[in-house]
Design goal:
- The protein has about 350 residues and is an alpha/beta fold.
- It contains 14 helices and 11 strands.
- Helix content is about 40%, strand content about 15%.
- The strands form 2 sheets. The chain has a 7-stranded mixed sheet with strand order 1-7-6-5-4-2-3, sandwiched between helices.
- A hairpin with a 6-residue loop joins strand 8 and strand 9.
- Helix 4 packs parallel to helix 11.
- It is globular.
- It starts with a helix and ends with a helix.
- The structure holds pyridoxal-5'-phosphate.
- Pyridoxal-5'-phosphate binds next to helix 5.
Length: about 350
């Protein structure tokens, strides 16, 4: 059974959190002289709302969750680090990943002195069957599943995520950075029945707000409570909070962009599949495609010489390069440059 006290680090359980001025007094007043701010108005002379209430209200409506199931971080990368600090006892608990996957899980584990256990995906980039990994995931800690997965592009069935979570003693972190480009359903639907599941989403990819640094975690209120206790008091700045609220209210533009990116993804895949120098185009539910080339290093270098930068993934996956889907014009330039090669 899920018990927050059994998975939270002892020092965190015992911690008295910092109490900020905006935490101690909430509401309206005529004069605020409690936070040593400069009193002259600049639109940002006051500290931001530490609990990002307006933002959570909007997310709560869009995602169909209670506000106490939502945590906002300075990008999902901050949330990944906070999860380690709260729920992994260094040199005791472990972090499980399914490579090839997003590199931050391992880096964050190393920073927090937590051992990382790598269980490779199958050759077709699917999760190994539960029976195979069950013996390996005995210890507590964090288990990361990135779906759709970066850099492979495919998503994993929710039922498998659920089955793994039901057998895992620690928290399962389902990173859905690319969910807006996917056909697959979000894990929000299994959150209620899976108390040890933490979903990560971000404003950095589909919403086009990478520069604002805003990421979200959706989880059991007790998990969110622990994250709130240890986060830097003002981790999301006021400009980012306002901009994200605006972007969520004005959703139509983003919806159109997402739909265009998906159309372009299909077009690019079709063109790539016709090329002799391409060995495999892997299926994608994200805004990038992983492509296996005959000579990846040559393609990489030639594109760079033609002013186009893509991501070299050949160290993790032989001869594989990751191409982000651009605008129709940018993709046309990419296709032209590939044809030159
Ligand atoms: C890009 C990406 C993120 C982004 O994180 P932010 O810190 O919110 O920008 C998270 N997870 C994965 C798998 C990503 O590819």
């Amino acid at each position: 059974m899920f018990n927050i006290n059994q998975i939270t680090r002892k020092n965190i359980k015992e911690l008295t959190p910092y109490s900020s001025a905006r935490e101690e007094f909430q509401g309206s007043a005529q004069v605020f002289l409690d936070a040593n701010e400069n009193p002259y108005e600049t639109a940002v002379n006051r500290y931001p709302d530490p609990q990002q209430r307006e933002l959570k209200m909007v997310f709560s409506k869009i995602k169909g969750l209670d506000e106490n199931q939502i945590f906002i971080g300075n990008g999902s990368d901050e949330i990944i680090d906070l999860l380690f600090r709260a729920f992994c006892e260094p040199q005791e608990d472990k972090a499980f990943v399914f490579p090839p996957t997003y590199g931050m899980y391992e880096v964050s584990a190393q920073i927090n002195n937590v051992e990382i256990i790598k269980i490779p995906l199958n050759t077709d980039f699917q999760l190994p069957p539960l029976e195979e990994i069950e013996k390996d995931i005995k210890s507590g800690g964090l288990l990361f599943i990135c779906s759709p997965n970066n850099p492979t592009g495919n998503a994993f069935p929710l039922e498998e995520v659920k089955r793994i979570a039901d057998r895992f003693y620690g928290l399962v972190v389902l990173d859905e950075a690319y969910i807006d480009f996917a056909v697959s359903e979000s894990g929000i639907s299994i959150l209620e029945t899976t108390p040890n599941l933490v979903l990560l989403q971000t404003m950095s990819k589909a919403y086009g707000l990478a520069g604002l640094r805003v990421g979200m975690a959706f989880a059991h209120p007790e998990v969110i409570g622990v994250l709130n206790k240890i986060k830097p008091p003002y981790n999301v700045n006021s400009l980012s909070q306002t901009k994200v609220v605006d972007a969520l209210i004005e959703k139509r533009k983003v919806a159109k962009q997402i739909s265009e990116i998906k159309t372009e993804r299909l077009r690019l895949i079709r063109v790539l599949e016709q090329m002799n120098m391409v060995k495999t185009v892997f299926p994608s539910e994200s805004n990038f495609v992983l492509v296996e080339f005959e000579q990846a290093d040559l393609v990489m270098e030639s594109l760079r010489n033609q002013g186009i930068i893509i991501r070299d993934k050949s160290k993790e996956i032989k001869d594989a390069l990751r191409l982000t889907i651009g605008t129709p014009e940018q993709n046309q330039l990419l296709i032209k440059a590939l044809k030159n090669i």
